[in-house]
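Quick one: co-fold with 2-oxoglutaric acid.
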Amino acid sequence: MDLKQKIDVVDTTGLKDFNEHYFKPQKPVVIKGLADNKIAGKRWTINYFKETMGDLEIDVFDNSNKKSASSAFTMPDLKMKFSDYLEVITKDEKTDLRIFLFDCFKSNPTLKKEFPCPEIFKGVLDSVGYMFFGGKDTTVRIHYDIDMSNVLLTHFGGRKKVVLIAPEYNDFLYRLPYNTYSLINLDAINHKKYPALAFVKGYECVLEHGDSIFMPSGYWHYMTYLEGSFSISYRKLAPTVQSKLNGFVNIALKMPYDKLMNKVLGSKWLTMKEQIAQRKAMEAVKSLRVLNVNQ
Ligand SMILES: O=C(O)CCC(=O)C(=O)O
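Sure, here it is.
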């Protein structure tokens, strides 16, 4: 796997420039300091959330609980008082606890005023903001977003490493059918077991306080919080009719089917999906070789 593709890093981008160079061609970009001149850029720290929302009860995911590996649908593992959770991620110690897809404007509408949707992402989904929190070395396993929307993720309070891989590599990444996960554990890549990974190319970058990253529709992402920190994401609908339809099919058909089969067949269902992922990866490698021979 080669993660040395160069991602564009820009200081600013206007709507016209963003649409032309990144949104239309569906090309990722890092925008440095997009939040710096917003209230959030100056105010949003872990302590700020402790002081203003610390009494909330929030859903927390625990990466050490592997039971969700087979499902398209991940459920929170525990509930915590927000201030207790924030205490955990303030420590300079590895933690598996993370907050995922926290619908923050519902709990605190002021946050939207402090970081309104950036101009480049205005659209029908711009009133929804999701937040994500993690501590030192917390990882978010590789996946792409089920609704196939575009994501603008802005980071605060520390550094986060982001790996992005284009959807062209779906089969080479051993994508599990009926959900949006891969067989691959990017924390410990096993090239022997997963030889198709040798053909995968992607991007790796580090976001700092105030930086944003544009993740186009269907892009695989894998995150590592390098220190206790958090992000907010805005979403924009999938760019083509086909990708909107794919998002709809994922949510309305594939996810419920996957859940049902998990219930009915249990671990047998996961084994079947793993075999399909392996077969598709090998077919993808074979078709590359045929292409090379014919060129
Ligand atoms: O940053 C995170 O913790 C996860 C972000 C993510 O998966 C997403 O925005 O879809």
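If it helps, The longest strand covers residues 229-236.
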